[in-house]
């Protein structure tokens, strides 16, 4: 049996000795204030045993990791109909996300690139009475943790500088793939991205995806077919233009955020969350990528 | 000597017999109300003799033709510095104007595609106290006609459906190639496009570009080098993705608008304006293109 | 325990009732001659127990499935140095494979798109004395089957119509990412694609990839890290522009060929090969995709 | 009246003082041997008066300038049918000529980009018995000069390194827009590009395009409509990705070649040829561009 605590400790020690931590995202001013030398890791196994090292209880901005939660909630609300408005293919191309959207007539490549997540946000707004409140309640429920909350300063900071997201939302609107108005959708979107959670909270919230759709409170939110699909999407599309590299080096489904968080999972085995705010040139946490590669290499627990 | 009146009459008669008038632009609801069977043409020569046929005094929405006037005013204000913010090359590509903007890091291909004209509008706003008033005064001056005005209903109609322009402006903003805020710039832009003029007014306003930069009121607005450049730009970029075709078939610099207007000119010889609201699949007036091709074929007055 | 034979029989029966079989690849004249109503499936588990249904022993042209074998051999020869000449990211874009190659300066997106496989072939040619003979011997070895052979008629047929591959190889050459001359490389490439194998042979040859790199003859050809990476690549890039869809619907690493074959595998559990010559619009076997989706849905044996 | 000799002398003196001559094309080894400090200019007016300065009688490789001659001959052979196989729009995009070809299904943007010129060469081969001989005779005829010839060393040099042209030709073939085989077409194409002419010869050969299609020997090769169209194409597409810039700065139709030659013309007024082997980053002669800009600025003889 694998001694997870020992593995996490080793990873933590290696991380502490690593000087090159990448570059903190500075396009969202509020995120630029974080201490670059933070590092946390937390793992939960199927028996809900918890292992951790470093700053695993410190909360940070989960950013794009929230896209997994909105996708989960949207699938619960409208099921497979969602796939008429967003595709499931990797985006591939680093330089022209908006052009792909133009070329493909307003159907985003997948729900984890920004335009795709904006469409998913639009679905939630159309089907919920109080979208921000109900989504927050949903995340607290699957996390089994009522302390999780938005960071409205971060949300406001993104709104002021989120011109690229405004461009994407308006382009979707021009292709009639946005039902609600741009301001409403982006207000929701900037709030979902501002959710603040620790590695410990993230790993436990993702328990649902290794446990056939059943969360820690034993509510079933997804069919096992839907879990399979979300996990497949995380593997093929979860890491921006580095999805292939992550599958190749780490070999687990996962999702990263520009706040420096990464969650990865092995169905029926474990989920793990890491946090280190410095990013590599593709926008994924530099130390987080190394930590997870080390984890699957040492434990030989990749899905491949 | 060419009998222009006879040529225009012949063109008008041919136009009246043409059933296939193309398709009126319907993405701006206000424009969709125009009578498709209107046709006007007006020509002014160097001696300021006027020739006309059809609905040449009926006013219509000049739309993108206004981009020539904003470019002229911007060159007057900041001169060649303008070219650090917008390029002078044809856009070529029909399907991905925003992607080119992404690829080329926020520098629009030329001042006659929408993103380029939005940058030019931004320049005017930065350098004028009352941009809408001063621009209107400028157009009235070069037109020698104080009755020219905006159509605020058309401007409001475009604002409500102009999501693609909002996408472009936000993308420019994300690349820091927009100094003013998106709403201010687009409010100006939608107003400039809503200018309402007749063929007679347009032809006389463009007199400046065949007369070395000197308008009908004998004010000099451009150096002869600047006139040469604006005319060159009209030739290479004045007709969306059909610029090559227009140069090839008509052989004159010109500019079209989705309201169905086209202005074309022969330096030191004449300017001519046509109007027919139905567009071809490239977004240029169907009958206008045919009329101008007929004009240069019959008179052998192309610049080539 | 899963009764694989029963599952395969059910799949076979469903297949036989399916009228819409897609369209046989006709751009290679020799392939167009195959009977569209063939269907075979074969599964091998970790204990090397074999299960089959339909035309599982009939040989067909494996085409792109051969790219997994050349990649395996190249990794054995030059190891991770290979990744300086070819990337590991999904290609994403359906319409511009050559343009991506231009844009990314001659580095193909991954070893399973044609330009990537041509680079891998070039590596083999540079490192082998008799490339075609040695590669064939390699495949026979991992297959534990000396009857496997090239089909020189198919190879010749592809050579005569393979203009797109000639374009790709010349483009690679222009970027100096091809060491040998175009004719030599493509002669090898067309031969590797012409390999003729049955579902039974394919499933047994892929045993290596579920068994940590150890083939049926108990030779170890790959480290477990390399196996993980090849399997990850099959998942993210194995199905042309439908890789996301296959991961999403089937949830297994795999590789398809335009001859109508598909191989998929579950590490440490089983490999399965299907054959049905009719293709869907993305170029993957229509019935093969359905069969594998049924297999993982019924057995719940996806890796996710 | 303009003193052309004085203007050319001034331009020549300025050129001699210019140190930064750009970079000689080195991808064709044979071209790389030319002396970078050569400079010639030659002008012919409507009365066939000749003016020259510098190395105006030294012969160089005309390269892409030959595309104007093949286009002229092809129009004479099959007329406007040519435009079903090649378009007349600027290519715009600097980075993906082959991708545009893929996207637009094998129809090159215009006859002056390489794929377009390869299609024109294919037309000549299909309609001539001895294509290379007959094309050479045609050029000698419009040049009124029997000493013009191919340089077979240059043609052979291009063949050995012309992988990008091989890629283009094969791509055209894959789209069925090439009737003859790739080798035959490229052999012709490399020969047409290897034509060796002086500025004096080029200017006199282009007399046809300022004289309504009638060459120096008084044979009429083109209708005045065809001349108009070729001149329009030179203006919109004659300078690779710098066509807009050339129209903007110089304001004349023209064509450049990587051998350092440029020809430009003013219909019914004059043609002028320059030669300076160093190229700017867009592949056009650096000093040639400056010389022509000076010429039209000083004489105010642009077509705009």
UniProtKB/TrEMBL annotation, chains A, B, C, D:
It comes from the Bacteria. Coiled coil: none annotated. InterPro entries: Beta-lactam/transpept-like, Glutaminase. Keywords: Acetylation, Hydrolase. Substrate binds at residues 64, 114, 158, 165, 189, 240, 258. Pfam families: Glutaminase. Its EC number is 3.5.1.2. It is an enzyme of class 3 (hydrolase). Homotetramer. Belongs to the glutaminase family. This is Glutaminase. It comes from Maribacter confluentis. The lineage of its organism: Bacteria, Pseudomonadati, Bacteroidota, Flavobacteriia, Flavobacteriales.
């Amino acid at each position: 049996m694998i001694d997870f605590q020992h593995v996490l400790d080793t990873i933590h020690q290696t991380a502490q000795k690593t000087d090159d931590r990448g570059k903190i995202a500075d396009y969202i001013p509020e995120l630029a204030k974080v201490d670059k030398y933070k590092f946390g890791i937390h793992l939960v196994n199927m028996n809900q045993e918890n292992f951790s090292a470093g700053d695993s209880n410190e909360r940070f901005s989960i950013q794009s990791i929230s896209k997994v939660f909105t996708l989960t909630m949207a699938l619960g609300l409208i099921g497979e109909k969602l796939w008429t408005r967003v595709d499931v293919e990797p985006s591939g191309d680093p330089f022209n996300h908006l052009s792909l959207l133009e070329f493909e007539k307003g159907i985003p490549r997948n729900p984890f690139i920004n335009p795709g997540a904006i469409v998913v946000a639009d679905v939630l707004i159309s089907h919920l009475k109080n979208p921000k409140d109900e989504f927050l309640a949903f995340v607290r429920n699957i996390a089994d943790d009522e302390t999780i909350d938005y960071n409205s300063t971060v949300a406001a900071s993104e709104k002021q500088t989120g011109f690229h997201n405004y461009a994407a939302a308006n382009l979707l609107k021009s292709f009639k793939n946005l039902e609600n108005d741009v301001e409403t959708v982006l207000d929701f979107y900037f709030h979902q991205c501002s959710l603040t959670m620790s590695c410990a909270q993230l790993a436990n919230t993702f328990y649902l995806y290794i446990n056939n759709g059943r969360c820690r409170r034993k509510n079933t939110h997804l069919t096992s077919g839907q879990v399979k699909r979300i996990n497949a999407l995380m593997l093929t599309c979860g890491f921006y233009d580095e999805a292939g590299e992550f599958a190749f080096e780490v070999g687990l489904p996962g999702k990263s955020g520009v706040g420096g968080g990464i969650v990865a999972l092995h169905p029926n085995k474990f989920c793990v969350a890491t946090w280190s705010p410095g990013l590599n040139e593709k926008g994924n946490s530099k130390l987080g990528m190394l930590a997870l590669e080390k984890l699957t290499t040492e434990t030989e627990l990749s899905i491949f």
